Amino acid sequence: MWGGIPRSIVSASLVLLLATLGAQQLPGTAPITARAAATFDNNAAEQQLFDLINQDRAQNGLGPLVANPTLFNIARSAPHQVCGNGQTYNGRAQDMIERQYFSHQIPPCGQYVWPVLTSYGVQWTSVGENIAWNTYSPQSTSVTSANTAFMNSAGHRANILGAYNQVGVGAFAAPGPWSDGSGGGPWNGVQMYVEIFANGPLPAPTAPANAVATPGDGAATLSWTAPAQSGLGVSSYTVTPYVNGTTAGTPIVYGAGSTTVLVTGLANGTGYTFTVTATNAAGSSPPSAASNLVVPSGTYPHLGLGTAQYQLAGSDGATWTDIDSTNLAFTVTPSVNRQPPATTRTSASASTAASSPGKKAVGSPALSRRMPHSSTPLSP
């Protein structure tokens, strides 16, 4: 309780160095007593609030704001040292939860968010910040309530509908009781929301992720995950092949909708890795992490092999026999286009520790020979 009124929505807006603080009770909603931070989906909350910001702008005849990944990171949890005391503090929403305060000024130095943006290379001519917390449930109601409070307050509304071209949103839930640093609280189930608005050069994409390659005959299939919060979007991707860490050939440009491509013109028997960059009107992203190593080969694609081609010695073709002293070896005869080579390989076990006398495994599943491959919300 705060002054006899449940403190369900508390919010503040900041434009440049001027702060206006206010509190209001939203009708038709009920605060809850607890909320588990473990169930809070930061990414979903931030996406919902971002969408609501642009929905409000559209309803007022304004164009959408671009999602700036760096602003998203700062609004939630990106670490910084703007206080100059050698201490590292997390981004806005997480820091206010962890250090239990509610202010545009970062303690203990009283700095605002502007130098944090500058420290991360964000160029801006004007900046605004909205902050709010509440205890509403479910999560979607909490987000909607925060946005409603912002739009019903002149200072917050001015930021949302202001002359900005980009925004970042941060959301963070308290894992236990939380106080606001001014003597209020503690409250359970607190969810913190931060909106950072900026006007300035728009951001290039972040790097694509999860580049995974699969070998083929003189080629490789490469897939990746598009950049999260890609700002202006992606106009094209560039794939660069490498051999032993050195660029091997001309980088290849693909369209914006391509996140799985066939890279041709590769030499069979040579090991390749690949990186991917994303490009938009603002520039190009850093390259992705290198893909797994693949070796193209003329034997691809491999054919599935039936039980007649892979059988344990002593098997009748339908029932696998128990491993015993006479059935410790098996012979594998690989084939290419169903034509066996001149040699076969025989393997023998040196131990019977894996045997299970008296049990039989029925059936002989088909086998395939494949090259192994590997694959893999906001932090800078």
UniProtKB/TrEMBL annotation:
Keywords: Signal. Residues 342-356 have a biased composition (Low complexity). CDD domains: CAP_bacterial (cd05379), FN3 (cd00063). It holds the Pfam family fn3. Residues 334-380 are annotated as: Disordered. It comes from the Bacteria. SMART domains: FN3. Residues 204-298 form the Fibronectin type-III domain. Residues 1-25 form the signal peptide. This is Fibronectin type-III domain-containing protein. It comes from Candidatus Segetimicrobium genomatis. The lineage of its organism: Bacteria, Bacillati, Candidatus Sysuimicrobiota, Candidatus Sysuimicrobiia, Candidatus Sysuimicrobiales.
